Amino acid sequence: MAAEVARMPFRLPRLGWLALAGAALWCVLAVIWPSAFLRGWLAVVFLVSGSAVGTLVLCAMMQLIPGLWDEELEPSAQRVAAFTPFAALLFLPILIGAGWLYPWEASGGKGAFREVWMMPFFWGTRAILFWLFAAGYGLILQKNKASPSVVVTGLILLILFFIPIAVDWFLFLDPEAHFSGFALTVLASFFLNALCVSILLALVLGTPMKRPEILGSLLLAALLSWAYFGFMQYFITWSDNLPFGVHWYERRAVGAWGLIEMMMVALHLLPLLLLLFGPVRRGVGWISGLCCVVLAGSALEALWLVVPGETRQTLAMLAALLAAGVFGCAASSVWSIRHKGAA
């Protein structure tokens, strides 16, 4: 049987060829407009790679706080956590093209420490070390044999490590802006996306949902955390009239970005309000649908966070759509190949 399988010709699905063609097109256009296309790619990194980082937090919580949610959620969450090394590879274009993406000269005259801290070499070193740590921590979590002390220590280090990383990757696009709770706001979004992806994957895998109200309550709690951290950052900025923060928000409220901002908030708050009702929290169909709505809002959040400030914003958004399409086709192709192999 093994010999027969080995002799079978490998055929790449049509979606696989489409993914390769899209990736080639993206690379060609990125050479022509590097800054815009890297911004679009960074938005995809926020949504896709961020979900993998958020899943590490989710898996750690399930091991530290065992309960009724493990049976439904842990198998799918472990699969998403196993995606972490690939999520690190998705960051490679940002690492290679950081010179076109970030305003390195803005750190000049800001003090010796900041000039050294934001040197491209140290910036890249921090990114590489973070992904190595995240991938290693993911391997520890997948074994399910680590002691609670190891899991909690790794979780604390992951969050502490992520605080400067969030600033490096996303806030440094606007070097004059700085928020004390920015990393926690981003991490809350990553965790929310990870929870939604894990729930949807569990349904795709056919995991029986014996207690859907638990997943509905978890989704409600994650949405409340997202709303709290996002609102507090906004409230502190405007109540204290902090110029750098006001400018950062104003840039994201002008023109079409104001509409995108309202849609982003609505696609998060509407599920939050609906989940306050018991029948919605207990309905598997409701939960899966609301997870899709939240992920759509998170896609808008990624664009809203990353693209403003780019001179070619339309190109950046098209680059994000193209990159997301490439990733979707590639993921569907891999899924098809694995299922054919299993059959």
Count of discrete alpha- or pi-helical segments spanning 4 or more residues: 17
Q: How many domains comprise the coordinates? A: 1
**CATH fold-level name:** Formate dehydrogenase/DMSO reductase fold
**CATH class type:** Mainly Alpha
Q: Count the E strands.
A: 0
N-C termini distance: 13 Å
Largest sheet: none
Beta-strand share of residues: under 5%
Judged by helices, strands and strand pairing, the structural class is mainly alpha
Topology:
Elements: H1 2-7, H2 14-32, H3 34-64, H4 70-81, H5 84-90, H6 92-96, H7 98-101, H8 112-117, H9 120-143, H10 148-169, H11 182-204, H12 212-239, H13 243-251, H14 256-274, H15 278-282, H16 284-306, H17 313-342
For the structure shown, list the relevant keywords.
343 residues; mainly alpha; Formate dehydrogenase/DMSO reductase fold; 17 helices; 0% strand; globular; transmembrane
